[in-house]
């Protein structure tokens, strides 16, 4: 590994590569709760991964056994190794995914032009939709499209990220996936002045992200929280949270110089290293992209994307339904009970 590799990158690499050296060799995009998935949402071995390693070395199994012979033994082995487990439903058909994999890798690689990456993300989503997938491949397709759209098409980005969250919520073991989705939505909320919503999205993910031992994502959420507190005129709390983020940032990003580069100005200007999708060092070093065109935007009379963000927070129960006009109307009439509705002065009339 290069000598400038951050402690977290080193740890993450050791977890996955050593596990694959002594256990399963391949990655599967349809595994939600595993580091053996090139979406790289998980950074350390999960309970599922440890279970697979224990099964792999079960004395009843040996090299040369047929698939049918292993399948016959698995129920008893699973009951012994994981007595509290049980059926959780299908994780998705093992259908051919070569075209989808190529498209998603093009979409998320730093070497292709942005237009080509967006077209590849759209292609991946089209493949997943036609195949009828409802697993993490479908969710990841929406996530990729949404993340690439954030820079200049906020409405589409929010819609795609919300769709990604809907699919992830239907699957077991996807807390960290949802935290990544919420981080992107919180970024957008902050960019449009909806600081209260950004704060709530950050706060509700701190515990699951800590539990997942993802220092990079935790540092990013704390930076978002700090900026949101600043916008809410709570400077003392913002300073304390910013200081809390420094230790996690040093562990996840590396040297003090790298940390300062990410903390200078808006703490939300960052490279893709803070998100998932880190398949190789070149991708981790991909061109930086700020999610905020304006680090301190003027307060809009009606916050952009309020309805979509509201639906992510409370499912639209406050009146912000799936139709943008209805969302704007609920906000304008003061009928939205979401946090950001208290941050803005609603228009006097429509």
Structure, briefly:
With 350 residues, this protein is mainly alpha-helical.
Features:
single chain, 350 residues, mainly alpha, 1% strand, disordered C terminus
Query: In which range does the helix fraction lie?
Result: 55-70%
Report the sheet-strand fraction.
under 5%
Strand order of the largest sheet: 1-2
Q: H/E element string?
A: HHHHHHHHHHHHHEHEHH
Low-confidence stretches: 265-302, 321-335, 340-350
Global structural class = mainly alpha
Largest sheet: 2 strands, antiparallel
Number of H/I helices:
16
Gyration radius (Cα, Å) is 21 Å
Care to count the β-strands?
2
Roughly what is the average pLDDT, rounded to an integer?
Answer: 78
Q: How would you sum up the global shape?
A: globular
Please, could you describe this protein's structure?
The chain is an all-alpha fold. 57% of the residues lie in helices and 1% in strands. Strands 1-2 form a two-stranded antiparallel sheet. The protein starts with 6 loop residues before the first helix and ends in an 18-residue tail after the last helix.
Secondary-structure blueprint of this entry?
Blueprint: H1 7-22, H2 47-56, H3 67-81, H4 98-108, H5 114-131, H6 136-149, H7 154-169, H8 175-191, H9 195-203, H10 206-211, H11 215-231, H12 235-253, H13 256-263, E1 269-270, H14 281-284, E2 289-290, H15 306-314, H16 324-332
Antiparallel strand pairs: 1-2
Helix pairs in contact: 4-5, 5-6, 6-7, 7-8, 7-15, 8-9, 8-11, 9-11, 11-12
């Amino acid at each position: 590994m290069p000598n400038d590799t951050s402690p977290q990158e080193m740890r993450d690499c050791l977890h996955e590569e050593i596990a694959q050296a002594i256990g399963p060799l391949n990655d599967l995009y349809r595994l939600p709760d595993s580091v053996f998935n090139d979406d790289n949402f998980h950074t350390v071995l999960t309970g599922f991964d440890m279970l697979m390693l224990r099964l792999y070395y079960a004395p009843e199994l040996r090299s040369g056994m047929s698939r049918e012979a292993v399948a016959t033994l698995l129920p008893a082995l699973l009951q012994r190794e994981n007595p509290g487990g049980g059926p959780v439903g299908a994780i998705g058909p093992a259908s051919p995914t070569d075209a989808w994999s190529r498209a998603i890798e093009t979409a998320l690689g730093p070497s292709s032009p942005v237009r080509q990456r967006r077209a590849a993300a759209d292609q991946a989503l089209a493949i997943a939709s036609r195949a009828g997938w409802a697993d993490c491949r479908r969710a990841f397709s929406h996530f990729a499209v949404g993340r690439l759209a954030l820079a200049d098409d906020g409405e589409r980005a929010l819609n795609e990220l919300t769709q990604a969250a809907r699919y992830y919520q239907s699957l077991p073991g996807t807390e960290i996936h949802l935290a990544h989705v919420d981080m992107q939505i919180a970024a957008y909320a902050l960019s449009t002045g909806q600081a209260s919503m950004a704060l709530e999205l950050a706060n509700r993910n701190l515990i699951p992200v800590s539990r997942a031992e993802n220092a990079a994502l935790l540092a990013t959420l704390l930076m978002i929280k700090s900026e949101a507190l600043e916008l809410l005129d709570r400077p003392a709390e913002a300073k304390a949270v910013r200081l809390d983020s420094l230790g996690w940032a040093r562990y996840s990003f590396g040297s003090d110089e790298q940390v300062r580069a990410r903390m200078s100005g808006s703490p939300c200007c960052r490279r893709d290293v803070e998100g998932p999708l880190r398949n190789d060092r070149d991708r981790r070093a991909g061109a930086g992209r700020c999610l905020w065109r304006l680090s301190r935007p003027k307060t809009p009379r009606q916050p952009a994307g309020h309805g979509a963000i509201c639906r992510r927070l409370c499912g639209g129960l406050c009146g912000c339904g799936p139709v943008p006009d209805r969302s704007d109307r609920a906000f304008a009439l003061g009928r939205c009970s979401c946090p950001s509705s208290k941050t803005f002065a609603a228009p006097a009339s429509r």
